[in-house]
Amino acid sequence: MAGHERCTAASTRVAGGYCCNVNPLDVVGVRVEMPANQPIVLLREVSGERYLPIWIGAVEATAIAFAQQGVVPARPMTHDLFRDVLAALGQELKQVRITGLRDGVFYAELIFNGGVEVSARPSDAIALALRTGTPIFGSEEVLDEAGIAIPDEQDDEVEKFREFLDTVTPEDFGTTG
């Protein structure tokens, strides 16, 4: 992490009061990585060419896919329940930050109004962010370490991935929530 420098518009405080540069991210979607049959969520740097793949569990993949497809289950899933509890308590999720990568494990923070920070798995944080319309950010350090640059000329491959995402269903992840 960066030192004790002052936070700027392109940086944000993380645990311990340190600053790190962060970049806004969009959720491209979820898919199953073969041959391991492991779901991933793919994030894209809003103002750059890096993509961030994060391996996640099947339940979280389903939750993210449901949110992206606008699926409203008959009974609330865990992330729907969390969103509803936040609303009932008058709390607002301000940001989701992908803050670290240690020993192959990604870390995230939920940032609430009043500056309250709660550690979370990125998959849960992303599923909640999609349900609440909360912006997602990735630390520069994480993007430098795990981001994959896909230049504009490779956009055809990204478009093929997006077309795949349009046809994938939550059932493709082996669970229905």
Order of helices and strands: EEEEHHEEEHEHEH
Structural class: alpha+beta
The CATH class turns out to be Alpha Beta
Spatial extent as radius of gyration: 16 Å
Strand content: 25-35%
Question: What would CATH call the homologous superfamily?
Answer: Bifunctional nuclease domain
Biggest β-sheet strands, sense, barrel:
9 strands, mixed
Proportion of helical residues: 25-40%
- Taken from the alpha-carbon principal axes, the silhouette is globular
State the CATH architecture. Answer: Roll
Number of helices, where a helix is a run of at least 4 consecutive DSSP H or I residues: 5
The parts where pLDDT drops under 50 for at least 5 residues are: 1-11, 14-19
CATH topology: Bifunctional nuclease domain
Strand segment tally: 9
Nearest-integer average pLDDT: 83
What number of structural domains do the residues give?
1
Distance between the termini: 36 Å
